[in-house]
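Progress report, Aim 2. The chain analyzed during this reporting quarter is listed below.
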Amino acid sequence: MRRLIVNADDFGLTRGVNRAIVEAHRKGVVTSATLMANGSAFTEAAQAAATTQLSIGCHLVVVDGDPILPPVKLPSLTGSDGHFPVNLSTIAAKALTGKLNPDEIEAEAVAQIHRLQSAGIAPTHIDTHKHTHMFPAVLRPLLRAARTCGVRAIRNPFVPPHAVPSWSLFRNLRLLRRSAGVIALRRFTPTFNRLVAEAGLLTPDGCFGIVVTGSLDDRFFQHIAAAIPEGTWELVCHPGYIDADLDLVRTRLRQSREKELAVLTSPEARSTLANCDVELISYRDLAP
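Predicted structure tokens for the chain:
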């Protein structure tokens, strides 16, 4: 049996992103979404979620954003400006050199999850902005936060082999670099699996879409559908509409969001999954 969760990240980032995610669920193949507690359109996203059957999780942010807790309580996570660092490399360096305070990560994660719960949402799962929970130093406190808040599932951020076609890597240097980075980070997979199992949380077998973030098109979608192994997997996506709100956000994903929306809502997307004998499920089905 091959099952696929299609999860839209960045719910709550802008009103245009919110509208696109709801549309990709109602008219397309998106089954789940992760909501940013510190997103500028959080309130609108929470209200929209109540009108859908989306499985809603928390998109935990410890990089490229603002904390929920006062920055003075998060000295290892925030800079002198009170913000999280912009670049993943900064958090990665701190995670690998023991310079992150796990109590701070846990407290901030609990605060972000609680914001969803206070809005009437029972999060079915968690993941992280820019997949920072690949690093054990971030993962451990996040698992404690999930257990504290009663969240039962977490994204497996590790990409299986053959997640993207080899021909695409030699035609696109950016994809080649991202693929090389993802392969290097696979060394954390055994630790991830062990820590998640010890915490008693559920997780898919792995994740598609990370390498092609910003490049997802019909050809990549068809390749992913055909490449899904036996088991339960997740496809990460970022649909959205370009609007004035998005212009104010620091993100490289702009025109690509509307292109992804077109892929996810096309009639061919659902038929492609059916032809490949892939069953669409949500995180709610994974952790009922």
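The CA atoms of residues 208 and 255 lie 20 Å apart. The chain has a mean pLDDT of 93. These observations will guide the mutagenesis work planned for the next reporting period.
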